[in-house]
Amino acid sequence: MSKWVAHVHRISGIALALFLPAHFWVLGQGLAMDGFLKWTEQPLVKFAEWGLVVLLAAHLGGGLRVLALEFLPWRDWQKSLAAAAAALTLAWGLAFALAL
Amino acid sequence: MRSQTFLWIAQRASAAVLALCVLVHLAVIVYAVRGGLSGDEILSRTRGNAAWFAFYSLFVLAVTVHAPIGLRAVLGEWLAWRGRSRDVALLAFAMLLAWMGMRAVLVVFA
Amino acid sequence: MSVLRVSVRRGDVWQAFEVPRHESQTVLDVVTHIQRHLDPTLAYRYACRVGMCGSCAMTVNGAPRWTCRTHVDKVAKEGRLEISPLRNLPVIRDLVADMREFFDKWARAKGQFKGERKRSDDCARVSPDSEKRIFADASIECIGCAVCYSACDVVAWNPEYLGPAALNRAWTLLNDERDTQQAARLRAVAGDAGCLSCHTHMSCTDRCPKALSPTAGIAGLKRATLKAALRGDL
């Protein structure tokens, strides 16, 4: 289980690292915000946004797992942190989906 | 060994900072989307706001540290890219993120 | 009597065998049957055959395990078995892995005890209840079977990585208050080749036949190197 959380953590990290320059570029354009926001209304963009939030939540969940394993005193239950990380991801993705 | 250890420390430290920043950022985005804020409404709240300017600058700084160090492991382990050239490339990526990130922060918050 | 369809990795090819299936049969029994009755040229390792020495470690249906402690019933889905040598190690022949690199890394991680007392000195007094001794005792039972080393993805991805067993041993020695080369040990396990490259996949802990947790020891090493680096001792 931990292995898959770690892989998701890595893949989501790569995806986010590739996404960020594009994100910064778009924001830095100083486009008339409304025109830009209209573009983001499209379903495909909404889906991509949801995907990004899930990636972010997955990466955060996996990251918190790593920090807990490395810095908190060792306990066997920490193995189930992997499950908690997955749950956190799902929760955030759903919350965002509902908010859209 | 010492420099590699400091990279590891920087990665964990920036991760802790980002954990907080990301939670705040997600909350803000959900608030804005839910609230159906228009572009002008968003900018009227962000422009000239020193507190948010500082927050997002810290966010950009943490990302500039965290992302390249993360990619360093991926490049070394999955592409077998090690040595000086990898570190130079990652430094360049860090500079790119810093520049583009601060430009975005200035546009939205200054 | 039913039959097992066994695929054995030999160099670049898989060789198929049909082995009679028995009750209470281990994978080691299967390999032994093949070598004794079907193909005497098959090379493999074992010694105690009762789960104490770790010599019989191989990859069975994709996972590293002790073949003498693996009942066929537990792993043979639909009567099929795939047996290959341990991953991440060079192969000498057939199912026999070359363990030299595994033990070289053990040495590089300063996995040897070094004390300063002489024969004429009194015995060291180490309280079994001390925190350090509890940590050491929890990880001390490693017999160097290389199952964890085989299971580790980082070992597969990074040829320099010392691996879970070597780091686990370094951790037990770090917690040995009699040992005198702690500074050198920390330096040996810091960095890209050492504990800092562990990504907590926990495959080692998952697969260890002695239920040890190298991940826990490696986490301890990470904290120790952090402290040493911040103090300027690294």
Please describe the topology of this protein.
The complex is a heterotrimer of chains A (100), B (110) and C (234).
Chain A: H1 2-28, H2 33-39, H3 43-71, H4 81-99
Chain B: H1 2-34, H2 39-46, H3 50-78, H4 84-109
Helix pairs in contact in B: 1-3, 3-4
Chain C: E1 3-10, E2 13-20, H1 27-38, E3 57-60, E4 63-66, H2 72-75, E5 80-84, E6 91-93, E7 96-97, H3 100-108, H4 131-139, H5 147-151, H6 153-157, H7 164-174, H8 182-189, H9 203-207, H10 214-231
Parallel strand pairs in C: 1-5
Antiparallel strand pairs in C: 1-2, 3-4, 3-5, 6-7
Helix pairs in contact in C: 3-7, 4-7, 7-8, 7-10
What does this entry show, briefly?
The complex is a heterotrimer of chains A (100), B (110) and C (234). Chain A has 4 helices and no strands. Chain A is an all-alpha fold and 100 residues long.
Provide structural commentary:
The complex is a heterotrimer of chains A (100), B (110) and C (234). Chain A has 4 helices and no strands. Chain A is mostly helical and 100 residues long. Chain A has a single domain, classed as Fumarate reductase/succinate dehydrogenase, transmembrane subunit (3 helical TM bundles of succinate and fumarate reductases, Up-down Bundle), CATH 1.20.1300. Chain B has 110 residues and is mainly alpha-helical. Chain B contains 4 helices and no strands. In chain B, helix 1 packs across helix 3 and helix 3 runs antiparallel to helix 4. With 234 residues, chain C is of the alpha+beta class. Chain C has 2 domains: 95 residues, Beta-grasp domain (Ubiquitin-like (UB roll)), CATH 3.10.20; 132 residues, Fumarate Reductase Iron-sulfur Protein, Chain B, domain 2, CATH 1.10.1060. A 5-stranded mixed sheet of chain C has the order 2-1-5-3-4. A two-stranded antiparallel ribbon of chain C has the order 6-7. In chain C, 45% of the residues are buried. The model of chain C has no long low-confidence stretch (mean pLDDT 96). Classes of the chains: A mainly alpha (100), B mainly alpha (110), C alpha+beta (234). Chains A and B meet through helix 1, helix 2, helix 3 and helix 4 of A and helix 1, helix 2, helix 3 and helix 4 of B.
